[in-house]
Each structure stands twice: as structure tokens, then as C-alpha cells.
Amino acid sequence: MSLSKKLKVGLDETRILILGSQILLGFQLQGAFRPTFEQLPFHSRVVWVATLGLITLAVALLITPSIHHRLVEQGHDTKRLLGVIRFCAGLSLMPFALALGADLFLAAEPVLGTGLAASIGIAAGLTALLFWYGLQALTARTTGEQERTIMSVEPEHEHTSLATKIEQMLTEARVMLPGAQALLGFQLVIIFSETFEALPFTTKLIHLVAIGFLALTVIWLMAPAAFHRVVYAGEDTPALHRLGTRFLLAASVTLALGIAADLGVVVATILKSSAAGTVAAGMSLVVLSGLWHVYPALLRRQRSLQA
Hints:
The protein has 10 helices and 2 strands, in the order ααβαααβααααα. It has 307 residues and is mainly alpha-helical.
């Protein structure tokens, strides 16, 4: 299989993971505004906040390869990028598994009590880890050695045609778009909850700003396809590739800002502390910006200095 094909498959596999992660993130954000949430004990609120952090980390990791492809590799197919996809997708399953177990605990606790719910959550998390890590490690001991050997001797770079670059750029937009749309929908629904009505005006305003960022994200992620159809009549051009790359990078900025702002609102609402919300927003923005913008920009600068 060619390097370009492997990258395409890797991005498609990332799409499978990202949609579930971002929908789960939307559930975590919206759930805090449901009427029965106020009845949760404090320890459940802490678990909820921790789960928010875990699923945000999973989302950040899954989007990272697309940003590296745009910003560091500038659309070219490289073995380094394939390694980034493999690393980020593999690592993202850890916080996703922990978040899944925690969410099942939160769902079961009101019905079955803390002890049994904790058992269910732990069992679910361990099952996910078994299927996503344990069985893979055991299978890799006896299977796939030839394929991994072939991979290790493949060239670092492969010529990437313009058509492939644009196809991958559109695929990367599809990686981010469904989850961004789901998040936007979840956040719009929150406005009509009674809990939201009781929030301070400043908090409401921050939430509206976050919705604005998510709306911009959706607009920018849909723009490359619109330009491809309307302006370029479906033809592949270097100008379209450059424009699409800029739209995707801009969308990553507004997505990071939107997620961070709403995380701050939700954490402040859950813990009844504006300081906690500010810390959560700041930490999430540091993680998202670090993975999506700062580190890739440093890599690109390092490459330009070495060239």
C-alpha cells in the first residue's frame, strides 16, 4: 500500500474516533444544564469535570494529525505524518476509554447506587482498554511483523499529487466538521434550559461567544467544498489547496477557543466557582493551542531553519 493510501486510511480511521469523541464531549457540556444535574452529589460533579478533561484531550489528540499535515507538512505525504496519526490515534483511546467508563458510572449511579455503578464504570473502562490496547499488544507479538518491517524501510517522503493533496484536505475537513456541528447543536440547546436562565449575565455572554466561535468553525470547514464546487467547478488547483488549508487552520483556532470558553462555563456551573471555570478554560486552551498551533509552528520553523 502506498504512503498516500496509508495516510488516507489513517485519516478515515480518525474520523471514526473523532465523531464519537466530540458527541460525547457535547453530551458532557450539555448534561450539566439538565434539571436533574443539581441533584448529583459533589463527588459525581468532580467525576463529571474530570471526564470533560479526558474527552477534551481525546478530541485534541485526534485533530492534531490534520493540523500537522496542513501546517508542518504543507499537504505533503510523509512517513513522519503517518507516525503522528498512529501515535495520536492510539494515545487518544486511553482518555476515551477512561471517559467512557466514567460516563457509565455517572449514568448508573442514580439508579444502582455508587458501589455498583463504580463497578460498571471500571468494568467498561477496563474492557475498552483490553480491546484497544491489550489484545493489540498480544496479537502484535505473533502477527504483523512482516508488515511492520516493510513500513520501517519505506522512504520518508512520497510524491503527492495535487489531486491527492486536495482529497486529503477535504478529508481533514470532514474529520473536524461533524463533531463541530454536533457541538454547535448541543450548545444551542443549552440556551433553552432553566439552568442557563439562572446563570450570571457574564457567563451567558461567554457561552454566546463560544457558540459564535463554533459557528465560525462550521462555516470555515464547509467553505473549501463550496469553493471547490462554485469557484473552481470541481477542478483541482493549487489556489484551492492553499485556500482550503487556510480555512482549516482558521477553523482549528475558533474550535479551540469555542471549546475552551464553554468548558469554562460548564466547569464554573458544575463546581459553583468562577475561578475553577477560568482555570479549566485556560488549561484547555493551553492544551489545544499547544497541540494544534504552537508545537506544529515550532516544527515548521525548525524545518525552515534547517533547509
